[in-house]
Amino acid sequence: MKLHHISLLTADFERNFHFYVDILGLRLVKNSINQGNIYMRHVYYGDFRGTPGTVVTFFPDRRFDLEREEGTSYLSGIQFKIPKGAMDFWTSRFKKFGLDYQRGDYSLEVKDFDDVLLEFIEEGEPNREGRINALSDVPAAYQITGLWGSRLYSSNLEATRLFFQQMVGSETGIQLLASQAKAPSRVWGRGSIDHLAFAVASSKDLDEIWEKALTFGYERELYADRGYFQSVYLREPGGVRIEFATLTPGFTLDESIQDLGSGFALPPRYEERRQELLRYYHKQGVHFEKKKEQDHEN
């Protein structure tokens, strides 16, 4: 089962935007709200279309301006796919932006501004036309093509392995590792990974996952309609949140492809609260409009 998206916390949206758009060359494809807490933002980055499997999302909030403590069960790092032959370009780009990096035989590592380890792995061909982000100065031949995976550290590793075998399958892109037996209590802060999501074809698949989780005795957290996709949220035995999300309707539900990420986006069921939410965020000093050109700080 392939990844749909990975969601993290950040305290500073502007720095976050600078890193993922100006440096990594992704596109801001949705500028919206956390539907679990509408008074918190939710922003999405991905390829030009916001194709599932390319998307990294963040909940920007000053309350997350804390040094994170991972605890005993947690997700760590993001692995991106880049085209074959792109390693030299990304090495030079990180050097250009003054970022420390580590280059190995098969991957390139760098940390974002929230100290999240990012790994870049050469795999496959460049993005096809339609997915190429023409708003970025990263040449099409070198643009990020999608998510490879992440690491999950579990306090109950064997039970976590069984969960993934039963609920996700063998091809997950997630490396499962044992966490330390003792660790400080978790502190949610800059760069904490809230959850990751796997892609499924339809709501029928979600129904099957929801019932299968009940059969196997796994914690079922939420079955939700997020507008841009439908989701099921489960907790694996170590306590990490795992989402399953549909491929459709997609991010063009409320914006055209050309306008993705350029304004305040709300799924239809929240539209009647637009002015209320805009007033709230304005008082917080939050403005949602971003130029479609997404100017680069080179």
From TrEMBL:
Domain VOC: 2-123
Record InterPro entries: Extradiol_RC_dioxygenase, Glyas_Bleomycin-R_OHBP_Dase, Glyas_Fos-R_dOase_dom, VOC_core
Domain of life: Bacteria
Alphabetized PANTHER family for the sequence: RING-CLEAVING DIOXYGENASE MHQA-RELATED, RING-CLEAVING DIOXYGENASE MHQE-RELATED
Protein name: VOC family protein
Gene source species: Lactococcus muris
